[in-house]
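for the recovery benchmark. tokens below, seq after
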């Protein structure tokens, strides 16, 4: 009972709070922890001191390698291959446009894709910030062309489009690692 309030509180039915919440799915907890660490990684990329061009390329190469490992963990149907043409690797703006486009086509319904999407967002965010800080003239986003444009027109086939988007990102990141000098061009 609160003093002088006339309100009585029945404490006989209160249930003590557990010391630690053991209800819930450990997979859900692991997923949340992974997203937290990915978010912390993004913050560390965005708040660091300005980097040299070589440092930027090293960070991009490292992030690409991490993404490729995650993409290798995604389960693909057997005997799936990509055919040409491949997306343009023509400067920083086109890299960001292509990676953002494929990220938007990936469905979380595929196993392990949520972390791929998170890391891909981190990488494109980092590249966008780099572009804003280094490119004196901010050009409009280049138009979407090639396989990305074709996939965007087939969004109704979510599962198939997601699989191809993952495979296209793998191919694109492999080429990007070999052509990091493309990031010098705005």
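predicted aa per position
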């Amino acid at each position: 009972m609160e003093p002088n309030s006339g309100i009585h509180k029945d404490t006989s039915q209160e249930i003590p709070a557990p010391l630690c919440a053991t209800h819930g799915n450990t997979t859900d907890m692991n997923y949340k922890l992974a997203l937290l660490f990915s978010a912390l990684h993004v913050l560390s990329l965005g708040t660091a001191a300005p980097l040299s061009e070589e440092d930027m390329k090293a960070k991009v190469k490292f992030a690409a390698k991490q993404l490729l490992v995650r993409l290798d963990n995604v389960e693909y149907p057997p005997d799936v291959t990509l055919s040409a043409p491949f997306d343009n690797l023509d400067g920083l703006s086109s890299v960001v446009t292509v990676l953002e486009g494929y990220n938007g086509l990936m469905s979380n319904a595929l196993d392990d894709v949520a972390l791929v999407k998170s890391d891909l967002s981190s990488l494109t965010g980092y590249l966008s910030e780099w572009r804003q800080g280094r490119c004196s003239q901010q050009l409009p986003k280049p138009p979407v062309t090639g396989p990305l444009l074709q996939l965007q027109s087939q969004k109704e086939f979510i599962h198939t489009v997601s699989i191809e988007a993952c495979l296209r990102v793998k191919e694109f990141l492999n080429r990007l690692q070999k052509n990091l000098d493309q990031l010098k061009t705005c």
